[in-house]
Every structure is written in C-alpha cells, then in structure tokens.
Design goal:
With 480 residues, this protein is mostly helical. 68% of the residues lie in helices and 0% in strands.
C-alpha cells in the first residue's frame, strides 16, 4: 500500500475516524488499534516478513528488559551484543550476503583460487534497514541509561512498527517517540488541518516534482551512451530533484500521517539544496539517518575528539557504512566515500557547524557569496548522485568522463521547458518558505488570507490529480 495511492487515502481516513472515536483516556486501546493497523499495513507488502518484524521487535523488547535488570556490567554488555549481533545478522543475510559472496568469489578467482559458494537471492524485506535501526538505537539507549526499558509490549511494538515510519522512516529514537506513545493524545482540529497540508505538499513533491523529473532522468541514464556531457549533467540534476522530491515527499506524508494521530515524528529534511557546504547538506538531508550514524557510530568512535589521522578514519568509516546501508553495491560505497571526502575539509578546519542557521535568515535575497557556495555545493552533490543512480560503476565513470569532456558544451538533447518552469517555481516556493518548520504550506500561509490559501490548495490538488496517471508507483527509498 503506497502513500501516493487511493487505497492509502481510504485506509488513512478509516483509521483516523476509528482512532478518534476512542476516548484519549483509553490510550492503550488507541495504541493497540495503531499497532494492529501497522501490522496490517506491513502485511500488504509481504505477510511472511511480518513474522521477522515481530521477532526483531520481541528480541529488542526482551533484551532491553534484561539489560535493565542485569546486576553486572558484563551481563548488560552480553545482552546488548546479543541484540546487536542478531539484528545485524538478519540485516546482513538478507541485504549483504550475496554482495559479499560474489565479491569474495571474484577476488579469489583473480588469484586463481576457485571456490563454490552459492548466492541466496533473498527478497529484501521492506523496511528492514529502518526498523532494525529503531531497535538498535533503543537497546543502546537502554544500555547507556538514556531511557529505561519499556515494559509495555504494545507501546514498544508501536514504537518500532508505527505505520507512517515503518517502510522508509524517519528513523525514530525511543527517547523521542516512546514518551509520546505513553501519554494521552487529544484531538486538535488545527493540528489535523496542518497535518493535511503537509501530506498535500508531500504528494505534490512526489507526484508532480519527483515523478516528472524521473521521466527525463530515467530516459537519460538508461540511454547514457547516446548523450553528451551537457545532457548527462542535466539528467543528474533531474535525478537530484527526483530523489529529493521522492524521499522528502514521502517524509512529509509520513510526518503528516503521524500528526493526524497526535504523534510528532522526527524531521527528516530541512531544505538541503540551499546548503552552503556539503557538511551543512548532511545536516539537512535524511536528518534522522545522519544523526543516527553521528550518535551511535561516529561519537562512540571518538568523534572529533581524536587526533587528525583518527578523525579522517572516523569520518570516512561513517560515510562508507552509510553508503553501504543504502545498498549492497560498490556504487553506494563510492557515493558514501565521495561525500566523506567533500565533508572532510569542513571537519578538519572545525567549520562543519558554521552554517547552523538557515541561509539568508530574515532576508529576501542571499548574498553573492552565499549564492556561489549554494551553487558549488549543489554541483558537488549532483555529481555524487551519478554514482547513486547509475546501474554500476562503469556507467557512473562513463557518465562523469563525458560530463568533464568537451561535450559538456554541446547543446542539450533534452529540453523539457515546462519541467524547467515547474522546478523554478518549486525552488522559489521552498526559498520563500524555508525555515525551521519543514512544513512548507504552513510557512506559506502564516499570514495569508483565506481566499489565497484555498486557491493554492485547489491548484496543488489539481496538479496532483492531473499528474497522478503519469506517476511512478514506488518510492526510491523502499528498496533500502
């Protein structure tokens, strides 16, 4: 059941009505309903993998209690590593086994050693990368005494499996979400309206921006041998907006869906293409994943409180495993490594937290230096997306070779004028609505009159309906 489908809209409306028919004082009943529909939602993908989700949930639930009850540090550490080992074991088998086996066979055959290992060709359980990280963060937080072990199995299971975040995040923290699930939630009409605004903007980004960019980016990448550098670079730009509209659109729908039930999820995007360097970009792109790796990998490794050589190693390690998290392919590993390389100068000069505020805050126009920095950063990110989008390393290298050749100055082979205009208006809207609140429509209508508000709503709905028949069904991050 996809977020951009009519079936999801009907599903959401029915659950919304049933949920608010339950009195807020009966919080456990509300949570039980949400847990049941979350499992139902997951079953629409593949009901067999529901048992894996429940097993992973039960493992971390009982591990958390055992860690909490253990009298010695050794016992706590044993339960922690049992949970981590089994969780990563499942993730490794389903997601990475074939990749490592294939590369091992190729490496040994290069030295004349032939081994006979079978690949498993498992179907990747949808959402496994996300709910595994939910559970890992929980048991680590219990071990580090940031949170007490949850004793209510329904509440804990809902934290892991809440349907808006189950398939593609955001990656939640128990310290943020569990307290919300433990208190009574009351109906709020303004909150519901604001949630619907966020869902509408998410649908617009997915169906109108991402899927229309996908038409051209797919055409260019699928026929990359036929185009010169200028058109290939344009294809990479289209993919940059495709993946942004696709994933941030998904996140908006997820956050809006959760808010309909009185739950606030972690913000996942904060206008990343207005970043002034790559370090700032990663504070604004897939925020829940970036902060997860920072808190549970980078800082435990010593973070920036180590020598220069160790700092470089830590930085590259985090970005390489971030790339591997996205997929079992050398493309993703190189993509992660490039981002690590681009982030490193800011980390080494300790300027990586320099641009904490939104660009040109309180101003209508950015400065010339800000414009240059934004454009330069965007170009670097676009080049890294070539590895993310390409089918293999050979295609990515071929595309980059062409981009950095004289053919970059050739005329474009693809010139979708309407899409150019659409992207310009989209960027203009995001620029004027940039701020700490990632809900663009809420920012846009803070002080606007009612007539203008509804004209905009109807226009967005019209575009969503008009382009829906030309829309791709799936979301890019479902494959991770």
């Amino acid at each position: 059941m996809l977020f951009n489908s009519l079936s999801y809209a009907v599903f959401l409306i029915v659950i919304y009505l049933l949920y608010w028919l339950i009195k807020p004082e009966k919080r456990l009943l509300q949570n039980t309903l949400l847990l049941f529909v979350s499992y139902l939602f997951y079953s629409f993908w593949d009901w067999k993998f529901l048992f894996l989700l429940i097993f992973s949930t039960a493992l971390d639930y009982f591990s958390g209690i055992k860690i909490n009850n253990s009298k010695t540090q050794y016992a706590k550490k044993c339960w922690l590593w049992i949970s981590i080992g089994i969780n990563l074991g499942f993730l490794g088998v389903f997601k990475y086994y074939d990749f490592f086996v294939t590369n091992l066979i190729d490496s040994l055959s290069f030295f004349g050693i032939n081994i006979n290992l079978r690949t498993l060709h498992f179907i990747l359980p949808v959402g496994i990368s996300f709910y595994t990280f939910h559970g890992l963060s929980y048991v680590i937080d219990v071990y580090n005494e940031r949170i007490k072990a949850e004793r209510n199995f329904v509440d804990y299971s809902l934290f892991v499996s809440f349907f808006p975040l189950l398939v593609a995040g955001p990656i939640e923290r128990a310290t943020h979400l569990l307290p919300q699930l433990k208190k009574n939630r009351f109906f709020s009409y303004p909150n519901s309206i604001d949630a619907l605004r966020q869902i509408l903007w998410g649908l617009f980004k997915k169906i109108v921006i991402a899927d229309q960019c996908a038409i051209y980016s797919n055409y260019i990448f699928n026929n990359s041998n036929e185009f010169g550098g200028s058109t290939l670079f344009l294809g990479a730009i289209f993919f940059a907006f495709q993946i942004y509209g696709d994933f941030s659109g998904y996140s908006d729908i997820a956050l809006g869906s959760a808010r309909l039930f009185g739950v606030e999820l972690l913000k996942n995007f904060s206008f990343p293409y207005f970043s002034r360097n790559v370090s700032e970009f990663w504070r604004r792109w897939h925020i829940s994943l970036s902060s997860w790796f920072r808190d549970y990998v980078y800082i435990p490794l010593g973070g920036s409180r180590v020598g220069r050589f160790r700092l470089i190693i830590n930085t590259f390690f985090v970005f390489l495993i971030s790339g591997l998290w996205h997929g079992a392919s050398w493309n993703f590993i190189v993509w992660g490594g490039l981002n690590g390389l681009f982030v490193l100068p800011a980390i080494l000069t300790k300027s990586n937290k320099k641009n904490a505020e939104i660009v040109a805050e309180g101003k209508f126009f950015p400065s010339i230096s800000e414009v240059i920095n934004i454009l330069f950063t965007f170009c670097l990110i676009v080049l890294t997306w070539v590895f993310f989008r390409s089918e293999n390393l050979n295609q990515a290298i071929q595309i980059l070779n062409e981009i950095f050749s004289r053919t970059f100055f050739q005329k474009l082979d693809v010139r979708p004028i309407f899409l150019f205009v659409l992207l310009f208006l989209f960027l203009l809207t995001e620029w004027f609505c940039r701020g700490e609140n990632s809900n663009v429509l809420a920012n846009l209508f803070v002080k606007k009159n009612r007539v203008l508000r509804y004209i905009t709503y109807y226009l967005l709905i019209f575009f969503v309906i008009y382009f829906s028949h030309k829309s791709e069904d799936s979301f890019i991050y479902f494959q991770f």
